[in-house]
Specification:
9% of the residues lie in helices and 50% in strands. By secondary structure, the chain is mostly beta strands.
Length: 853
């Protein structure tokens, strides 16, 4: 190779023109180091997702790749204080406002495209705004109001308890940090998998603002505005507003309306900051409001049980058996209706159920029954079901956050107070078929308050932090099911629960520097929880005098006996961490640690079948992790690697079932059960490279092995060790690049990224103890259909930012290959008789114009 050239990213570049430029004496050393770097990167196959971040309070604007020499320091608050990402013993993916914009991280679910080992589900039987976060195979996929997540969401330091409002949009965001591995010591309960730490921009002492206008396909329209104003020398205010809407992604011939239509997404935040110049204190208060409305979660049939009730409406198994439809493949019948007309007609043929034959015959006529003509001519059996005719998601959330900080010289006192109120109502088509076989309607109302006090400081070689935490929430949850509406086998049921939870905790963590390079860390937290529930259940919500479905009065009329069951429980558990780290050189940092954390126990707000408890125990996790973080070539190549293993006990998993009470009445139910033990192990790699001026290459890769322990059993005694662990893809990886070109008129930036996730199970059921071979086979078939197949998403963005005035023009595209993909699963193969998968967005594209002043 010519000594005047270096090979990088498949091309050649003169040494005296790149950022690796050195004097002649250094060329030989540089060449050897570069070959080593390429070998390291080549052995992993990928480079990690970019890890841009800035301190939450930083006033400086983050430099773009073309403006900086070397990869910038990344300041994170992963340990509740500002630290350099490269010298903390935590695996963190962090993105600042520039990275969020460039990589089109618009909502929380988009973070799965940038973070190794992170899996996110959304929608499902809950509202579209719900998120189910999983890190390193530790997941909770239930919308139940008294079950918690394994990954905590924190907004400006305040814990968001209910995931129903978790799919938040990033407006005027300063940074997003994804912490992987148990974080129970400093962040508290329900962080067994990790934590998501979101920080919004704070008011500054400058007059500044921005306005963004956007339009895209599906009539997507968007307006965002931010304005910052100093009200005095000590007080400043900042306001951020957003409006977003679009037409439906997928038509639904069942209801005659589209699904995925966002009729309105409104968000606003007002923040006030007081920072007196003559006092070492800062006080901030902010309030926000979010109103989100759409036309329901689109879903597609992935399997229908040939022996189940839904078969009587479809005859879909005949199509599968003939080879016309691939077995266990999602069938977009209620979505795009790309199925041939002849097959569509076959899909609508009645089954052989004699109880339904006379009922469905008027609606299913073989002659001429094809495509849209069938619906127009013959109607459907579920006509008049208000929940099917009006599929929707409605979520309203409000919050107030107050932060007070007092710098006392050798210590710092910080108070974080938070109040949140949310309400979500959604109606879901359970079967995803043109016949509209059933609906599931839920309403969640929640109110929470939290207060945290932190005291942190330094004493010689000792850094310490301690604190107290209090949390309380109240709310209600209503679930209505309407299965086979207006048919002889119709099932209607309602469950209603009111609840209250209270949690108290105290924590302390210390870091002691034995030498300037060698440090030990130890921390502990203890939590006390009290939870109570009043549960009501009735068999027919349409009846004037329904029958009780829960408690001691099952089978009795509600007019003569209360249909209420009240329970309460206390839980307590520790969290801890112990580790060592060593700074081998200014650019090489290694660490090893072990941690323990718990996900709170709770109650099921809906009925549970015989053999299962109405409450469930805390899930407990112990893990071990080693890592290395290295900067090469004068900080133009960065690699971070983590290797981990964990053991989970009392694993909490969701179960879907048709519940038959003591009176013989049936209803659809969904509940959480402790399901044995899970062992996980894996490795994660992240990296960033700046091979020449203006170029930044990023990527990540993670491998995860997650399995139920041998002999692991549900509380009903069923062995789960052969079942897949939910939301635990074996492989996730991403790759991206941004090239900036500086011009006299401004800066042109071209970005592209690709993210891949391997197949993953979402909703896995277990056969009942003593089940027959046929019943076991049916459960296995439903589980197979609940696996979301592997997919990859390609995205891109091109922008041109004028130097003066500060105007940016951008065009963007998401899912550019129009890859079909799915976000969640509803597995009722042995209940209703079908398994459905919920569809992600198709190819979208558009443009924006942004003004800064």
């Amino acid at each position: 190779m010519n000594d005047g050239l270096i090979a990088f990213a498949g091309g050649f570049m003169p040494l005296d023109q790149g950022v690796f430029r050195e004097d002649a004496k250094m060329k030989k050393t540089l060449k050897a180091n570069l070959m080593l770097s390429v070998a390291i990167v080549g052995s992993t196959g990928l480079w990690s997702q970019a890890v841009h971040a800035q301190a939450a309070q930083a006033a400086a604007v983050t430099a773009t790749p073309s403006e900086r020499e070397g990869i910038a320091d990344i300041v994170v608050t992963a340990r509740r204080t500002s630290e350099n990402l490269q010298t903390i013993p935590v695996a963190v993916t962090a993105l600042d406002s520039v990275a969020l914009e460039t990589k089109q991280i618009l909502v929380v679910t988009d973070l799965a495209r940038t973070t190794p080992s992170l899996s996110i589900g959304t929608g499902g039987t809950g509202p579209a705004s719900i998120v189910y976060l999983a890190i390193r195979g530790q997941a909770q996929n239930s919308p139940n109001s008294l079950s918690d997540a394994s990954v905590g969401i924190y907004i400006d330091g305040v814990y968001v308890a209910r995931p129903i409002v978790g799919n938040l949009g990033f407006l005027d965001a300063a940074s997003a940090e994804v912490l992987r591995g148990p974080q129970g010591t400093l962040f508290g309960r329900n962080t067994t998998g990790g934590a998501l730490n979101l920080t919004s921009n704070q008011p500054t002492d400058r007059y500044e603002g921005s306005l963004k206008l956007g339009y895209g396909n599906y009539n997507q329209r968007m307006v965002e505005g931010v304005y910052n104003v100093p009200l005095s020398s000590d007080v400043a205010a900042r306001v951020a507003l957003r409006y977003n809407a679009r037409d439906n992604f997928y038509p639904n011939l069942t209801s005659g309306k589209g699904q995925g239509n966002v009729s309105g997404d409104y968000f606003g935040r007002l923040t006030l900051k007081w920072s007196p110049s003559n006092l070492p204190i800062t006080a901030t208060i902010s309030g926000d409001f979010n109103d989100y409305r759409d036309s329901g979660n689109p879903n597609a049939v992935s399997a229908i049980n040939p022996s189940g009730p839904l078969q009587s409406f479809t005859n879909i198994s005949a199509g599968v058996q003939s080879g016309a439809i691939p077995a266990n493949a999602p069938i977009p019948l209620s979505a795009t209706f790309s199925v041939p007309a002849a097959l569509f007609a076959n899909f609508l043929q009645p089954g052989a159920n004699p109880n339904l034959q006379s009922y469905v015959n008027p609606y299913f006529t073989p002659a001429g029954a094809s495509g849209n003509n069938w619906l127009a001519t013959y109607g459907r059996p579920t006509t008049g079901n208000p929940e099917i005719d009006n599929l929707h998601n409605l979520t309203v959330g409000k919050s107030v956050t107050g932060t007070f900080t007092w710098d006392m010289g050798g210590a710092r006192l910080k108070s974080i107070s938070g109040y949140r109120n949310s309400r979500a109502n959604n109606s879901l088509d359970l079967t995803g078929t043109p016949t509209g076989g059933g609906a599931f309607v839920t309403e969640y109302i929640n109110e929470q308050f939290s207060q945290e006090l932190q005291l942190a400081g330094t004493a010689g070689r000792l850094d310490w932090i301690g604190g107290l935490y209090y949390f309380r929430e109240t709310g209600s949850e209503r679930s209505d099911s309407a299965i086979f509406y207006n048919t002889p086998i119709a099932a209607y049921a309602r469950s209603l629960a009111t609840y209250a939870s209270e949690s108290k905790g105290m924590f302390a963590q210390v870091n002691y520097r034995i030498t300037d390079e060698f440090r030990v860390t130890g921390g502990i937290r203890y939590t006390w929880d009290n939870r109570s529930i009043n549960r009501m259940g009735i068999t027919d919500w349409r009846a004037a005098d329904p029958v009780c479905n829960v408690g001691a009065n099952i089978g009795k009329k509600a007019s003569v006996a209360p249909c209420v069951n009240a329970e309460s429980r206390n839980f307590s558990y520790p969290a801890w961490t112990l580790g060592v780290d060593y700074k081998i050189s200014p650019s090489v940092f290694v660490y090893a640690k072990t941690s323990g954390a718990s996900m709170s126990g709770g109650f099921n707000s809906r009925p549970v079948p015989q053999g299962f408890s109405s409450s469930f125990e805390p899930e407990r996790v112990k893990d071990a992790e080693v890592g290395i973080k290295v900067d090469f070539f004068d900080r133009h190549l960065r690699t971070n690697i983590a290797v981990f293993g964990a053991r989970q006990a009392n694993v909490q998993r969701i179960v879907n079932a048709v519940f038959t009470n003591a009176a013989g009445a049936q209803s659809l139910t969904q509940f959480v059960s402790n399901s044995g033990k899970v062992n996980t192990a894996g490795v994660e790699f992240e990296g960033t490279a700046q091979p020449w001026r203006g170029m930044e290459m990023t990527g990540s890769v993670a491998y995860l092995d997650a399995k139920y322990a041998s002999g692991s059993r549900t509380e009903a005694g069923v062995d789960r060790s052969v079942e897949p662990v939910t939301q635990a893809p074996k492989w996730t990886w991403s790759a991206g690049a941004t090239q900036e070109f500086k011009m006299n008129a401004g800066t042109l930036a071209i970005h592209g990224d690709y993210a891949y996730v391997s197949s993953r199970a979402f909703d896995v059921n277990s056969p009942a103890l003593g089940a027959t071979p046929a019943q076991i086979a049916a459960v296995n078939a439903g589980n197979a259909a609940s696996v979301i197949r592997a997919y990859g998403l390609l995205n891109g963005r091109i922008s041109f930012a004028l130097a003066k005035p500060q105007i940016e023009f951008a065009i963007w595209g998401r899912n550019l290959t129009n890859q079909p993909w799915f976000t969640n699963v509803f597995n009722s193969y042995t209940g209703i008789g079908s398994t459905n998968q919920f569809q992600g967005a198709p190819r979208t594209y558009g443009g924006t114009i942004s003004f800064k002043f």
